[in-house]
Design brief:
heterodimer; A: 245 residues; mainly beta; 4-stranded mixed sheet; 14 strands; 4% helix; globular; B: 204 residues; Protocatechuate 3,4-Dioxygenase, subunit A; 8-stranded mixed sheet; two-stranded parallel ribbon; 3 helices; 12 strands; 25% strand; binds fe (ii) ion
């Protein structure tokens, strides 16, 4: 006997777990949050399919932010870290061959972007941009420097906790997700209006990466572990019995 | 027959923030180590069907265009086939990517997609849907990405039979999902995050 699986519609999103559109303490959400009820309907092929990305789009240093913007023989300044984990769906199944993009500020909290005017210096050897494609079972990893916290115009004296932005695809376009990874123990986490758009401590914990001593490379690089869960589809398992038995 | 219930929670969303370009369209704001931005070119050779350009703006509740949004679209080719690994109905046009990514212009807010008019795909219970494009919008101030669809205002009959559009109780709001034909192969599709013209967003 073997099992075959029939994939059904996407499991509806838990809107009480996800942040509300309107979170007034995060001021930019006030004029950018839809107010009408969302239109719900079961997923169709348009949502159950997703673009394909091949490894041939990747450059050799795309997953190494310490070196991918550095001059020959130089490297980015900051605490060297590995970020690694697994991209899974809600059924706990790893998602291979999916594109993961990440971007972040430098060790001083400054982004390489023309709209970022924070007085902290740019690091000439740090771009802050990387990407990878998940391996078998959804595993991914990249190397970077730990980003710094930075101030932002919101409430007068708001500082973002150190964070890395993530963009993830999956196997159906309704799985599309952008989120942020925080670092265990950062005192800015509980003060941040963007973090506080989350509805529970559990949701904040889900975005907070713990130090992972097992993956730390002695005298070289610390490691943080960050798993990401995308939506899943209803799955129905059928037993396949052989004829005549 | 057994159904396994979901046992993990989806990772919570957080805003893409004002610097989404660094990670997703790094060549848009400055030179990057990537040779090209993913999703900028949806056609990598001659394609089947009608080539179209869709332009538009994302407006906030005060009527101002967003200049820091990222918009992605996903659609089938002109024959209605998706260039996806789980497309089982046939093989899509090899020169068509199906997926596009555009950012609002940093000064004017305009976004643009050079694509093809999508073919039709079946919806719930196998009923054919009107031609449409799936849309996803993120930006600073948007806590969780917004899903919607582009339909076409020159597809009157197909739209009137579409199983999703016909579910919309306030039929006046259907027009928020229609791209307006502005000439041969040219459409305008604006997205309103709030206000009297608020776009219908989906929870699928
Ligand atoms: Fe940020």
């Amino acid at each position: 006997m073997s099992l075959s699986v029939q994939k059904g519609k996407f499991i509806p999103r838990d809107r009480e777990w996800q942040p509300e559109a309107l979170t007034p303490a995060y001021k930019s959400s006030v004029k950018r949050s839809p107010q009408a009820a969302l239109l719900s309907f079961p997923s169709t092929l348009s949502e159950e399919t997703s673009p394909i990305f091949n490894n041939n789009i990747l450059g050799p240093l795309d997953n190494d932010l310490i070196f991918n913007h550095a001059k020959p023989g130089e490297s980015a300044i900051g605490a060297r870290i590995i970020v690694h984990g697994q991209i899974l769906d809600e059924n706990g199944i790893g998602i291979p061959d999916t594109l993961v993009e990440f971007w972040q500020a430098n060790a001083g909290g400054r982004y390489r972007h023309k709209n970022d005017r924070y007085l902290a210096n740019l690091d000439p050897n740090f771009g802050g941009c990387g990407r990878t494609i998940t391996a078998e079972n959804g595993f991914y990893e990249f190397r970077t420097i730990q980003p710094g916290p930075y101030p932002w115009p919101n409430g007068g004296n708001d500082w973002r906790p150190a964070h890395i932005h993530f963009s993830i695809f999956g196997y159906g376009f309704v799985q599309r997700l952008i989120t942020q990874m925080y670092f265990e123990g950062d005192p800015h986490i509980k003060l941040c209006p963007i973090v506080n758009s989350l509805t529970s401590k559990e949701a904040v914990d889900a975005l907070t990466a713990p130090l992972d001593m097992k993956r730390t490379i002695p005298m070289n690089c610390r490691a943080f572990k960050f798993n990401i869960v995308l939506r899943g589809r209803h799955q129905t398992y059928f037993e396949n019995r052989k004829e005549g038995l | 027959m057994t159904e396994r219930l979901n046992n993990l929670k989806e990772s919570p969303s957080q805003t893409a923030g004002p610097y989404v370009h660094i990670g997703c369209t790094p060549n848009f704001s400055s030179k990057s180590s990537y040779s090209y931005d993913l999703g900028k070119t949806m056609k990598i050779g001659p394609v089947l069907g009608e080539e179209i350009t869709i332009v538009g703006y994302v407006f906030d509740g005060a009527g101002a265009p967003l200049c820091d949004a990222m918009i992605e679209i996903w659609q089938p080719d002109a024959a209605g086939l998706f260039p996806a690994t789980n497309e089982t109905r046939g093989i899509a046009d090899p020169n068509f990517m199906g997926w596009g990514r555009s950012t609002s212009d940093m000064n004017t807010g305009e976004f643009i997609f050079e694509t093809v008019k999508p073919g039709t795909v079946p919806g719930p219970d196998g009923v054919m849907q009107a031609p449409h494009i799936t849309v996803w919008v993120v930006a600073r101030g948007i806590n969780i990405g917004l899903h919607t669809r582009i339909y076409f205002n020159d597809e009157t009959i197909a739209n009137s039979l579409d199983p999703i559009l016909s579910q919309i109780k306030n039929q006046k709001r259907v027009e928020t999902l229609l791209a307006l034909k502005k000439g041969v192969g040219r459409y305008q599709f604006d997205i309103h995050l709030q206000g009297p013209h608020e776009t219908i967003f989906f929870d699928i």
